[in-house]
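Quarterly update from the structural biology core.
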Amino acid sequence: MTASSKRAATLGALFLSSLLLYGIRLGAMPRTVGAEETLLASQARMIAATGRDGAGRVLPVYISVDSEKWLQPIPVYFTALWLGLSPSSVFVLRLPSALLGATDVVLMYLVALRIFRRDRLALLAAALLAITPSHFFHSRLALDAVYPVPFVLLWLWALVGVLDGKSSRGLALATAALGVGCYTQPAALTMMPAFLVVTLVVLWRRGRLPADALRAALGGFAAPLLPAAAWFIAHPRTYIDTIGRWALPLAYVRFPLDGIRAAFNWGTLTLRLWLFWDFFSPSYLFLQGGSGRADPAAHAGVLLLPLLVLVPLGLRQALTRDRATASGLVVAVGFIIAPLAAAIFLEPRAIARELVLLPFAVLLAVHGAVALLNARHAFARAGGILLLALLPVCFAWYAADYFGDDLSASALLERHV
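Predicted structure, tokenized:
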């Protein structure tokens, strides 16, 4: 078997095993369909049946639920593709998220392979993402939370190739992935431009941002946004309740100074900074997960408990020894800014608004594992082996409670969303 066929077999195995994991009792757990899932399902069924939204617009860029409620297009249209097979099936309703979750695992492997250049470390990264509690949970719900993640992974994969000098044309692909990602979730309208800024800064620091590269980066990001621009030209009033509500209010476009004053209002600024800092609370990340009443099925935080050691070690590694490769810096900065949108829009501990954190956390954990396994002292190496061995044990504990508990979807969502 050639190297390419081995790689294809590995990718196929990762996808199928992840899909099997996320598909176990998919139509039965959570036991009831939540309000947000119902909303997405109703709009997807309407699009699948008529090609129109609730307001009668044909193939709209943004989908109108009512006069003030709108949905981003990619989750609705992707769900509509599958609901055409069985409109009333809860399994089919949630299947698109499971497919995206499995795709994330494959992309995680490819990103880690480019960064670490070792198959075992790439497999570790892919497996770790697959068993991350917050990724597992949201890959089993018909919500938009998981939708930005594959676009961030595509961006990382292409950008690392550019930084390593493997693909000068990959820059437009990297930023185009961010541009398309803007259609996945309201929080993505803040995070994708933030990752674009990270791209430009890192390339500038590496001396790889001449005028043609800058044009490629900005053009790649802007091209997917042309349909949105055309939509707002044709339907200008819809801006207020879509981009105007999710990212940039129209009043601040007309009067930028008012927007700057509002953003830097002392009371609001301190609250947002406090919320931003709280997203890095160890109890949130590694022990209890999101806010809300306790979920007995969630014996885990956003990340598995062993990452309490691995992520800080990896962050130190990425910001020091790996700075010369630039990929470590991108991963570290991506991890640090991941809660930006949730903090700006005052959503405390809302993992559904910062699921893009997960690829960066996984890569930092692999950095940390490498640092321990390559340490001089046998005690540190043994600790690294123990932490890696505990990962499947912690996930098994979480999964056993998840599948064995009688909580409704609303209780679970209150914990994880």
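The radius of gyration is 21 Å.
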